[in-house]
Specification:
Two copies of one chain form a homodimer. Chain A is of the alpha/beta class and 431 residues long. Helices cover 31% and strands 25% of the residues of chain A. In chain A, the strands form eight sheets. Chain A has a six-stranded mixed β-sheet with strand order 6-3-2-10-22-21. Chain A has a four-stranded mixed β-sheet with strand order 1-9-8-7, with no helix packed on it. The first copy, chain A, has a four-stranded parallel β-sheet with strand order 14-13-12-18.
Chain lengths: 431, 431
């Protein structure tokens, strides 16, 4: 293997971090300027601020607004390097991470490759659903939604129009609710102005949830508020409804109707990226890798698993798969490694829960901070501020602020381009 | 054909405009609120500000900054409709425009589908060169350049490194010069900071031009200034050099060397989109459609050809393929149609030349206005102002202004994402 990062013997221990999401990035930041060599590996050259991904899909933000080049973040840390690579295998005994054309040896390994969508074996769901787990998927979904309106603006029959203008979101968790709200605002605001030839009575945004409420992890008062607001925003919420099957043009509901729809967005489940199962580490039924309370893998205590990929072994309540958990675990894993190098015992991870927030639309959000619940304008402003502050980079903050301000003031969305997302076409020019 | 826009007999004449670039859009604007029905057809749902496309390729602007949704532009004109379609054929006798799934009848047709890259039969050029004619191509080129640096940052042999770090631009016209300058600034500024492991003495930006100077259409003083500045920016300008062949890893020069390079950007020639040849209208050797001085097609005087696609039949000096020419032709064609409806004779097109400008880099540009030549900071500020003013949409102007200001003040480029530009991957999640 010619392309490889080999270890220099006798020098500082090398920590390899697989994944540049919240957990991996914060682990790298914590290890910065410490007596270790750090290599951060990611399949993309940018970090994605996933909490705002749904706004890219709803044509509210530009993809570049929520992504930041990892090299720029790490530039100031001389002991941290970045490698663009897609991790394939781990040689646990030789302590080497392998990608298709790359091998990186490690003394400590932090696995932070995140999660994937779980379809629970629903036929057709994986093939025909859109997902919201990566920047690419966000752009694909945005393009698809706008294309549906373009096709619906033509002279077509009613059945086809119904398929094109029914948007189905499966899963009433935070992502499903936030996306349903943002989509409803996009459609009944800017798109209504853009497509005068479309009868908007045809348009349906449907949110399907298996339980008897949306936002199950929130208190009842906030759940009810969210439901009420979604109804007012013309989102058709179908509770206690299970999806049996997805086809390119329909969603089949259990014991119920068949909905004609060309757009199914699946936000209902989360599992590990299937590749993690091949690494030979013990995993849960969802493929999440099991760790000790110290975030170490039992029996392989040079390996840490953090963020969405990590599952605590001690049967405690599964931590939410959120950015705050990931950030805190990243910091803790890094601190435990630094401690171990200095001969100190590893400390168990304790999640400091600072609350949770979900925005539904204009002036409309729910927030749970400690035992206090907030709704409406105050919760919405809080949500805006927290997300703006946590964005990486001054330029991204400024761009998001401008986009949000203009959307708010003008009831408008600027980013409605159907951008190409395909291979370069065969040159059509003279040769 | 079920999907079709059929003409309502006895009502206002329908003008169909093929292409939403500068010429087509300005034709539409001129026909707005006039006693005609207008249908604007484009294969994209956005208008692209092509004069700044090279800055997208050089990671200076976001794709969304130079694109604007056509429906938003046309929204305020009740007599103008937009159709997203790729034009395939024209039935000249029945007066119908045909796309794969669409048919639009017309009374007047304005053809404004623009130009494509001309490779002059150079073997391999069409297959292995990058182009700068569409937003998609700009993003593809940006991704490729950044990927070259990622791969070059690994431990590889010198020959491979040379291929990865040699960037070859063919054609010393305005696009070639502007892109060479922007690329040199990207490389020797932000990328140098991002890739500490790369020896930047390996990096070469080569500009190949067949003639004995760059920017042939400008006066000698400005050409010499541009050449001097390019040299100072470490652009290797090879004059009187012809390209014989392009392969994935090399460029073969006539009677000269073989350059190892994985990046060839072809800006050297322009021709019509080959599909225009199939429409049965008389064309030049480059496929441009010939028109009378009134911009009408001889013998088919309900058809107008404007913008890059248009070639005057009268052997006058070929007009430059620029936005000002396109805009003025769009306005003139629209006025001639309105005149014709009122029984007035069509007026010949006269180009009002307001000058030309090319930016080379920071504080560095050339401008030719009337008989006056400008260089340096003044020309550069003039270039910035003219381009900012001509961008469509307040938000785009603001975003470009912010991006430019921050790049200028911080010697930085924010947009260095290798964004996916491929089909959605097969879902990797559990099904």
């Amino acid at each position: 293997m010619s392309d490889s990062v080999t270890k220099n013997k006798g020098v500082r221990p090398r920590v390899v971090i697989a994944g540049g999401g919240f957990s991996g990035l914060w682990a790298a930041k914590t290890l910065a300027n410490q007596p270790v060599d750090v290599v951060l590996v990611d399949r993309n050259n940018y970090h994605t601020f996933l909490p705002l991904l749904y706004q890219v899909a709803a044509a509210e933000l530009e993809p570049e607004d929520i992504a930041y080049p990892i090299r720029s973040i790490l530039r100031k840390y001389t002991n941290v390097r970045f490698v663009l690579a897609d991790i394939k295998k781990i040689d646990l005994d030789k302590r080497i991470l392998l990608s298709t054309d790359y091998a990186i040896s490690y003394d400590y390994l932090i696995l932070a490759t995140g999660s994937a969508t779980q379809f629970f074996g629903t036929p057709g769901a994986a093939e025909y659903s859109f997902q919201l787990k990566s920047l690419e998927q966000g752009i694909i979904l945005r393009n698809h939604i706008l294309r549906c309106f373009e096709y619906a603006s033509r002279k077509i029959d009613d059945a086809k129009r119904q398929q094109l203008l029914t948007f189905t979101i499966v899963g009433g968790g935070p992502t499903g609710v936030e996306f349903a709200g943002a989509l409803a605002e996009l459609i009944h605001g800017p798109l209504k102005k853009d497509y005068p030839s479309i009868d908007f009575d045809y348009v349906k945004v449907i949110l399907i949830e298996a339980a008897n409420s949306v936002l199950l992890s929130f208190p009842k008062m906030l759940r009810d508020y969210a439901l009420d607001r979604l109804y007012r925003m013309k989102v058709n919420v179908m509770l206690e409804t299970l999806v049996d099957k997805v086809t390119p043009l329909t969603v089949h509901l259990k014991d119920k109707d068949i909905l004609p729809t060309q757009t199914v967005v699946w936000t209902a489940g989360i599992c590990a990226d299937p590749i993690a199962e091949t690494w030979g580490l013990s995993a849960t039924r969802n493929g999440l890798l099991m760790v000790l309370p110290t975030l170490e893998v039992e029996g392989r205590q040079e390996i840490y698993v953090i963020g969405d990929l990590s599952s605590m072994e001690d049967n405690r309540r599964q931590l939410p798969m959120t950015a705050p958990v990931a950030v805190q675990q990243g910091v803790q894993a890094a601190k435990n490694i630094l401690g171990k190098i200095n001969g100190k015992p590893a400390s168990p991870f304790v999640y400091k829960d600072r609350g949770a927030m979900v925005t539904i639309g204009r002036n409309t959000a729910v927030a749970q901070i400690g035992k206090k619940s907030f709704t409406g304008f105050f919760a919405w402003v809080l949500w805006l501020i927290v997300h703006l502050i946590n964005l990486i980079g001054f330029r991204n903050r400024l761009m998001v602020l401008i986009n949000w301000s203009m959307d708010y003031l003008l009831f408008e969305r600027a980013i409605r381009l159907i951008l190409p997302l395909r291979k370069p076409p065969k040159p059509r020019s003279k040769t």
